[in-house]
Structure formats: C-alpha cells, structure tokens
Specification:
Blueprint (H helix, E strand, L loop, with lengths): L4 H23 L5 H20 L6 H20 L4 H11 L2 E5 L8 E5 L5 H36 L6
Antiparallel strand pairs: 1-2
Helix pairs in contact: 1-2, 2-3, 3-5, 4-5
Length: about 160
C-alpha cells in the first residue's frame, strides 16, 4: 500500500460518512428523546455491520450484542409497546368526546368517552389506563436498561 492510498481512502471514507449521516443530522432536533435514540440507532447499525466483518476473536458475539441494542432501539423509536392494549381500550370505551364546560367554569373542554356513563365507569377507565401505562413503562424501561447496560458493559471492547 502506498503512502498516497491511505489518505485517499481516509478522504473517501470521510466523504461517505458525511453523505450517510446527512439525512440523520438534517432531521435531528434538540428536543424529544426519539431524536437522540435515532442517532444512537444509526451509529450502532453502522458499527454492527463493520464489527461483523471484523477479524478479532469475539467480533461475531460483539456484533450480536449490538444487533440486540439496534432491535430494542427500533422498538423505543417506534413507541407502540402496548398498541394492542390501547386498541382494546378504545374498543371498550368508544370514541373520545369533547364536551364544553359551563360558562362559569375555568376549563374550556372536558374530555370523555362515549361508553363512560357513570362515575364507576370513569374509575374503571382510569384503572384500565393506569394498567396499560404501567405495562408500557415497564417494557420501555426494560429496553432502555438493556440498551444502555450493553453499551456500558461493552463499548470499550467494540473495535475493528
């Protein structure tokens, strides 16, 4: 390999990196955790592909760990952990309704559902929502713990 080919290869790689990262950076915003997760997801996908082609002992195992993180990040970004449960809830309680408040009230609108008729219904609805939210949060926390635990335990070993 000549001394010229290495700088040319580095330049080519740098240009390719700029091109591949451009859409990710273009859509990036400084709010909402999904933008942050999207950056990590993209980087880990690139690392997994590179490490899977690696030539060191354990590279396949490292690539597999990264792939698990990528799958978890895809779920976190998609954020539909309990889509089926939310769908069943909407079937049970019906369409959302907006009811204007009385003129002498400080609110402008009350939100309810067509099948909530009594205070007992309202309490049951709240209990249903709470169960779904708790289940959803448990799944989200599990994926977050897995992703960042794997990164914490392995990042210093990931190289190619």
């Amino acid at each position: 390999m000549s001394l010229i080919s290495l700088p040319v290869r580095k330049l080519k790689n740098s240009i390719w990196n700029l091109i591949s990262w451009f859409p990710i950076v273009w859509r990036d915003r400084d709010w909402d955790y999904r933008y942050f997760l999207t950056l990590i997801h993209f980087k880990l996908k690139k690392m997994e592909k590179c490490i899977r082609k690696g030539c060191y002992r354990g590279c396949e195992n490292d690539a597999d760990k990264i792939q698990i993180c990528v799958v978890c990040l895809e779920r976190l970004i998609k954020d539909d952990y309990c889509a089926e449960e939310w769908y069943e809830l909407s079937k049970k309680w019906g369409e959302m309704q907006f009811i204007p408040c009385d003129d002498n009230s400080e609110c402008s609108t009350t939100i309810t559902f067509e099948n909530i008729k009594t205070e007992k219904d309202k309490e049951e609805y709240r209990t249903d929502v709470k169960k779904i939210v708790e289940k959803e949060n448990k799944k989200i926390r599990g994926d977050l713990d897995l992703v960042f635990g794997v990164i914490k335990d392995n990042i210093l070993k990931w190289w190619n």
